[in-house]
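pinned: reference chain
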Amino acid sequence: MKKQIKRNNVQRVRFLCTAAIIAALYVALTYVSMFLGLDKNAIQIRFSEALCVLAFVTPAAVPGMTVGCLLANILTGCAPLDILLGPIATFIGAIGAYLIGKMRNVNVARWICTVPNIVSNTVIVTVVCFFCYTAPSAQTWEIVPFYAATVFIGEVISCGVIGTVLLRSSEKILCRIC
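pinned: its structure tokens
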């Protein structure tokens, strides 16, 4: 009985530590993108979004990514709606990647695990861009497809391309760590 309790405590601590490391990496990689000026263009590239593939490997990435996104949005001075909705988009994407990681066909799952994050961010961040980062005089519905396209392209680069390369190149290491 005591061994089981000790094992459960070790698993909880490991889960929390993994989530905390992922959150810290998310914040650090967001700052790297910011310092390189990749977050200031129409197509924003956040290296931290590549970490969404970690949810494919470990469930600890779900709270880690969510908290990391929340902290990054607060620390980088995002609008309040962005601070609220950004982590929700990341949470939805991470849950999707985690669930895809449970698929039986692992070869297919590896290639599609970034799709939930790309879709959730495209939908939610488009709304955030429209309401928070558009001048009131320019807030017309004609700009929404532009925002959707630029967010989608940025997510495909950050999450789809860089994330997939990260997963494919380090999967054996990630599986052992996580």
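why pinned: The chain has seven helices and no strands. The radius of gyration is 17 Å.
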